[in-house]
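FAQ: What does the model actually see?

It sees only this:
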Amino acid sequence: MTNIRGAAGRRNRGVLAALLGVLVLGGVALGVWLQPFGDGTVPPEETAGPPTTTVPLAGVDGSLLEPGQCIQDFVSAWEPRFEVVDCAVEHSGQLLAEVEATPLSESDEYPGEDALRDRAQITCQSKDVLDTTAAAAVPGLVIEASYPLSQDDWDAGQRSYRCFAATPGASTTGSLAASQ
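And it is asked to produce this:
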């Protein structure tokens, strides 16, 4: 008799497990069909907020920066925009000069980034560009230059060095540009 009860109990558990499985699968299928939480899209009226406006970028476009202008929070000679300040105010950078690079090459061929970088470093530290007396009094002064980076830039007419003086992590007042 014990064997009959044991077999009946195992059979009942098997039927119960099968019934439970069918109920779970049926619930999942019903849930997918009814989509009680929506289809994942948000109606436009729930996402619409106030109209957005375009905020203009701060500072002066790098191509419009004039030699002699001082720059607040200077990062690099390659930045697309600069925050221009009066040179009497503390600043960390200055565009010293824009110097033609065309004497470097008599042909129309791009002289190469290395040649331009080397020549720019020499040119940007010359007395024609940098007030060397004033620069000697500025600790940690770094001279940076930007220049045409490719034949395409060269062909587009970008044929000059832009010489910058920078004081990374510090600031200075006054101009370091050579008097013209």
